[in-house]
Amino acid sequence: MFAFSSLTIHDCVVENGVSVPVVVEASPSFPARRYTDDWDDPPPPTVETWAARPILLDGSSLDVSLTGLIGEGRIGMTYSARVNSARDATGLDVTDSVPKEICLKFAKPPYVRSLAREAWFYEQLHKWQGISTAKCFGFFSATPDGTLAECVVPWKESKKVPRRRYNPDDGSVYQPPMKDFLPDEAPDPLGLYSDEHGFHRDSPWKTWEHSAESPLLAVLALEKLGSHYFMPDEEPPERLESLRYVCLQTLSIVTSANYPDIGSIRNSLRSMVDDIAQEGIHHNDITAFNILGVPEESLTLCPRHNRRHKWRLVDFDRADKMDPQNCGSVEFQRVRLQVRCIGKVSRRFWGAVDD
């Protein structure tokens, strides 16, 4: 709905002191393996719901200029970008239909597969884009000819070092098969993940490896949102209606109605998370830092909750997805109850400031 087939980025690559525009082309996303936990022989999901969307090759284009660093995470760097122009497949100028500013998420060179995986989750959430999640304008990649890694501005400005991951059983360091950690490629003794149609196995990203000599520039283009959700001491007074924990006694469907005493603002966040649950998606990292504010002019009515969510959920690279049409009660409950993360210190909702 919002995608383009190519993206030209200015002020992203600097060679010999001169800014050089770089063009990245539409790339396929990386389908996740299906999460299952209570089926002996689960029916396969339908092809239409699980395959990566075809690469867009219609000639539509977006031209942008980087304007500033927004932040840095585990797998990437996010920048604001001014939209210079946009053209559809016929060459018609459609700049007025695109926001004046967007957000570009650049993968750190070893973490391109994670960004391709995140792009697939935005595809899966296409009907919730601009409602509960950010609008996505496409996933792009290219290996700039003759461009050295130190010439790419986002890579030069990266400061974070990935945290080490440990095996919870014996405390030893767990080394994944590749540097790019993917949740559904870790050791899986319980057989929680399946890939009946081979979408994950047959993806070009399955065997892709980072090359220091020829790094791949991968970018996810998203709408630009506001700041992250409040810290505990900054939350508006509405939350003081009640902070007592609500214990769910049954496996009934969870909606904001199950939380009448927590406060209207947190209820609105739960409604937003409930939207992604409809697609069988478990975010796995619902923190205040991954919930961003929405400008008033971008508020869109949610057809499920009949309200305009003032926040949107981002960062799906660690997410899981079940097939909501072929799942059992345990799986369904796990996805729906992720709303309980909202506002819970014990569930690391506020994480750490430097996460």
- Radius of gyration, in angstroms, nearest whole number: 21 Å
What is the beta-strand fraction?
A: 15-25%
Structural class of the secondary elements?
alpha+beta
Mean pLDDT over the residues: 84
End-to-end separation? 32 Å
Number of E-state strands: 15
Helix content, binned percent: 10-25%
Instruction: Please tell me what the overall shape is.
Output: globular
Describe the SSE topology:
Blueprint: E1 6-15, E2 18-26, E3 34-35, H1 47-50, E4 61-72, E5 76-87, E6 101-107, H2 112-124, E7 136-142, H3 153-156, E8 193-194, E9 217-223, H4 264-277, E10 281-282, E11 291-293, E12 301-302, E13 307-308, E14 311-313, E15 320-321, H5 329-336
Parallel strand pairs: 1-4
Antiparallel strand pairs: 1-2, 2-7, 3-8, 4-5, 5-6, 6-9, 7-9, 10-15, 11-14, 12-13
InterPro entries: Kinase-like_dom_sf
